[in-house]
Amino acid sequence: MQQTHQTKRRIGRNFLKTVAVFSMLCDHTAFLLSEDLWLYDCMRAVGRLSFVLFSFVLAQGFLTTHNVKKYIARLFFFAILSEIPFDLAFYGKVIYLGQQNVLFTFLIALLVLAGLERYEENVLIKSIFPVAGCLLAWWLQTDYSYMGVLLVTAFYLFRFFPDIQAGVAGGLLLVSGSGLEIFGLFALPLCYCYSPEKQERPLPKYFFYFFYPGHLLVLGLLQCLL
Predict the structure, then answer these.
(1) 63: closest CA among 185, 153, 165, 125?
(2) b/e per residue, 94-110, with b = 16+ CB within 10 A?
């Protein structure tokens, strides 16, 4: 009976993605459109869950994908596709090289995971990939930068030890964050309750990929009109 109860409490990947999308929408809507300080803080606090959940989902997606090369190519395509909406929404320019959208951070993190898996038995070579990934994210000035790469890497490396995984991820959030960033810790219990065996209703395969540039484009247009 206890095992059945615990199984019912488990949550699946689509649920995590849905919460992450809602959180991201709250965050970006507040940042781009809100003029009320209290509402701004509340919505951005909710928004802190988004990156943590997407980082966790990315690590899980890497573990279950049947074709890593296609996964990398898909993420690269949508990172490129999202750059103009990102630049328009946050910087009011078609091209802004001062910062790159978060999908580039996830792309770099995915390449790091691929390297870790390929050279799993060689500790020396393995250690090169996280360092190189962090340096690349910092050099390209991607959203969340090297801390984003480290968070995804931590979710992957400690996948068999959920207690340690939550502790390391929480430590990274505490070190990298300040102010509202602390609310990202509330995403960790959701990650802890994740079960890859959870049966869910299928969602459109590319919905979450298209949602990112799509919502930025809409919010950017609203920002110009309001």
Answers:
(1) 153
(2) eeeeebbbbbbbbbbbb
